[in-house]
Design brief:
Bound molecules: nicotinamide-adenine-dinucleotide
Helix content: 25-40%
Largest sheet: 7 strands, parallel
Structural class: alpha/beta
Number of helices: 13
């Protein structure tokens, strides 16, 4: 059997290549992103694709590249992939949902301290030649109350680190969450805003969060409280934030994400928040560290490798999730099908009719898809495989030995 081929675009971390090659996969790297036509040409005969955020994997590309079985988004977001179209074709998509969590948390901590000590105000004055030694408006973060809005991967990790620094942590999340350490869950966003010295947003980018934090919320904050947004730009009304900062109602802000962000490095950046004292602006770099890049490279390449080697779809963002170990029998049959009644029975009937004994079997479903993985002893014939492949409702059949 010829080796599986992978195409990795957009300068992925070398660790991704190492992991795939160690599994016997042939890897070709290309530095830049490709457009649709270039991608179709480059994917000829290729089973795995690795991309960051600039390469768009559209339905047209997938239609033209039937060899593709898996795609890795070496990023948090997966907007660059048409996930539904990939699922319909049995192309498993993976991402790295928490490889840069720690990086965002560390930046939030640095910014909280920096704003609480007004470091960027002093820094700017010093560069302008002004020596303004003063304790006015400078505080320790110890004993201050941090209000975390969105207690997911980042919010909950920040909770632990902030508590270790001596902060009181309160949080608000609209889903049930385990409060870590001594953190206190607040019943409403309003109650959090009224109690926090620092408010930091870590909600996700679901469409319903558009404009989530506006004038009403800023007005509920304690006078002089600090505000951080390292989540998504469209969640915050930046004009309302600007007003709050200029009036002094908000004591300072650190903003890493913006409603409109330049497309690429070097493009001009314009925001109403520019040139306001005690405001830190950064170009969406919360998760951008070399450690996070390496961890993303390792994490996503392992998901692709496992999918190829043992059919595991664990943490796939578009296929039913099955966490699998190495096959128990001589062969593993991975059958992705439409989620309709009777498919499992039909798979087993075909195997029985072809005299194939089942050693183990697992099934998972997700929306319109079902995924049944069957380990069988020796004796799996080409006829049996052909019969399974021809079953109505089959989306993709893979036999792993
Ligand atoms: N600045 C960066 O470079 C960077 C890097 C990574 C992630 N992010 C962003 O950080 C955010 C958080 O990431 P994560 O991995 O912790 O996500 P996550 O999905 O683990 O957590 C999000 C949490 O927010 C909660 N939530 C969503 N909407 C809410 C609402 N309206 N009210 C209250 N709670 C709400 C969810 O229940 C969940 O617990 C995301 O928006 C992500 O895009 C930014």
């Amino acid at each position: 059997m010829s080796p599986v081929r992978a195409l990795l675009l957009e300068n992925l971390h070398p660790q991704a290549t190492e992991n795939l090659e160690a599994a016997g996969i042939d890897v070709v790297n290309q530095a830049g992103a490709l457009d649709e036509d270039e991608l179709i040409e480059a994917l000829d005969g290729v089973e795995l694709l690795g991309i960051r955020s600039k390469t768009m994997l559209t339905e047209r590309v997938m239609e033209a590249c039937p060899s593709l079985i898996g795609v890795g988004a070496f990023s948090i977001g997966t907007n660059q992939i048409d996930l539904a179209a990939a699922a319909r074709r049995g192309i498993a998509a993976f991402n790295a949902p928490f490889s840069n969590t720690r990086s965002v948390v560390e930046m939030a901590v640095a910014e909280m301290i920096s704003l609480t000590r007004r470091l960027q105000v002093h820094n700017r004055l010093m560069h302008e030649g002004v020596w303004n030694k003063s304790a006015d408006g400078a505080h320790e973060i110890r004993s201050r109350t941090l209000g975390i809005v969105g207690y997911g991967n980042i919010g909950s990790q920040l909770s632990v680190v902030a508590e270790a620094l001596g902060m009181n942590v309160i949080f608000y999340d609209n889903a049930e969450k385990l409060a870590l350490g001594n953190a206190t869950r607040m019943p409403t966003l309003e109650s959090l805003l009224q109690a926090a010295d620092v408010v930091t947003l870590h909600v996700d980018g679901r469409a319903g969060n558009q404009g989530f934090f506006g004038r009403t919320q800023f007005e509920m904050m304690k006078p002089g409280a600090l505000f951080l947004n390292l989540s998504r730009g469209f969640i915050v009304d930046v004009d309302a934030l600007k007003e709050g900062l200029e009036s002094g109602a908000i004591g300072g802000a650190a903003i890493d994400v913006f409603p409109e962000e330049p497309k690429k490095k070097g493009d001009p950046f314009v925001s109403p928040l520019q040139n306001i004292p005690n405001v830190i602006l950064t170009p969406h770099i919360g998760g951008s560290t070399e450690e996070a890049q390496r961890d993303i490279g390792i994490f996503v390449s392992k998901r692709l490798r496992d999918y190829v080697q043992n059919g595991s779809t664990s943490l796939s963002v578009n296929l039913p999730n099955l966490q699998l170990e190495q096959p128990q029998g001589s062969h593993r049959i991975a059958h992705l099908h439409e989620n309709i009644p009777g498919v499992l029975a039909a798979v087993n009937r075909e195997l029985a009719e072809h005299n194939v004994n089942i050693d183990g079997q697992l099934l998972a479903t997700r929306g319109e898809l079902g995924y049944v993985v069957t380990d069988v002893a020796a004796g799996l014939t080409d006829d049996a495989v052909a019969a399974l492949g021809a079953m109505p409702g089959t989306v993709r059949l893979r036999v792993l030995s």
